[in-house]
Amino acid sequence: MHWLLDGYNVIRRNPRLSDREDAEGLGGGRQALCNLLANAAQRSRHRFTVVFDGAKGGSSGVGGMGVTVVFSGGTGSADKLLIERSTPGVTVVSDDLDVTDGARRAGAETISTKEFMGRMRNGGGRRR
Between vectors from CA 8 to CA 123 and to CA 16, what angle results, nearest 5°? Predict the structure, then answer.
């Protein structure tokens, strides 16, 4: 399964991740999320792509085994990138209505950040 995450949306809706961001800045929140996803990828063999707004000029990289990180940079907003990368077979994780509506129109499944974090706690992202 391929998960496509609205990075800052997930971080800011989870107390453990947002506390890390508050204490260490944006990089700390991003690293905490990537660590969580890398652990889940190892347990589940799922792939995770995390999209963040801003920095790093539209670059992408590895956030750990099974985790790809993409920055919107000059290419527009993370929301736009999430919708563009939404395809059948992908599950988009966001609480942003514009993102989830666009993702569904593109044929992707969507779930809330709360449901996603529950799945991470209960088996590393496997479907119930």
Answer: 55
User: Quick one: pLDDT at residue 26?
Assistant: 86
pLDDT of residue 123: 65
Structural domain for 114, as ranges: 2-121
CA distance readout (Å), 91 to 6, 16, 99, 127: 11, 23, 12, 11
- 13 three-class SS: coil
Is 95 within a domain? yes
Domain-located, residue 126 = no
How open is the CA angle 81-43-11, to the nearest 5 degrees? 40
Condensed to tens digits (0 to 9), the pLDDT of residues 95-112 reads 999 999 999 999 999 999
Tokens of 84: 């563009």
Q: Which residues pair with 50 in a beta bridge?
A: 5, 69
CATH number at residue 12: 3.40.50
**In a domain? residue 62:** yes
